[in-house]
Amino acid sequence: MIQPGTPGVSGLAERTTADTDGDVRRILEKLESTGQLLTVSRLVANSPALFRAFVLFSDGILTRSRLPGDLRELCILRLAALKDAEYEWAEHVGFSSRAGVTDEQRHALAEGRLPEGVDDDRLAALAAVEKLAEGGGWSAEDWDDLRARFGPDGAIDLVMIAGWYGGVVPVLTKALGLEPDNATYSQKGRAT
Question: Which domain, by its residues, includes 35?
Answer without folding.
Answer: 17-64
